[in-house]
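Fig. S4 source data, part A: sequence.
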Amino acid sequence: MEESISGFKIRGDWGDVVEHGERITQALREHSVDDPGCGGEAHLARAFEEWDEWRPKAHETLEADVSEKTADQASVEEGKGEKAGKGPDEDIKTAGEKLSESYEQLEEDDPDAAVDNWKQSIDYVARAADSAGRKALRRVEDTVYQNVMTQLAPYYFDNELVSANIQQSTRNGDAGEQFVFEVNVNDDELKEKVSDRLAEYDDEIDRWHVEVEKDTDAAEAIEGAEPPPEPEDNSRSTTN
């Protein structure tokens, strides 16, 4: 691993990439950024979950899985309507209802209430247009990103906790596909703690057991076989 001001970089095959992501994730977890109840902040816990979801996994591929997750992460953020769980059609319907109420209040000689409902009607129309526009842009963005941008630039991830990028470097003969994966912890104090923990892993751990996706269907299908017991925490790698 290479360490610099821009982060922690690894060069190697897919297994090396996966292990690098797991080590950094475990180091972050050990400093409780994933648990607001143990001193971590809620917004950092959400950022940790986003990173943990995006980081490359042993059963994934760069071109399919990481590409899709990168496009999702890079998509236009949600607008007010989407955050409220309302689609454009719902907002248009509500806008119509507010407009009808506004006319009724005018007939009832209540101009203040009529103006208030009229303003709300306009707000709902604007929110519906915003949601529809974001949805359309997101479809275009996803297509453009997956089919064009990933051919020109590395796959990347960025939030307030972690910034990362990965790209295929070369096909190295018998070594197969080779990758460069760089991860930076955005908070300098936390980055120093992660750096110290990564160094301890190198000193203490002979072999890092990479997480693999569990498939118990085959075992359960065998007559008399019982599924293997689940570990206490499936999110943690085991180490020797």
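Fig. S4 source data, part B ends here. Strands lie at 2-4, 7-12, 155-158, 162-171, 177-185, 208-209, 238-239.
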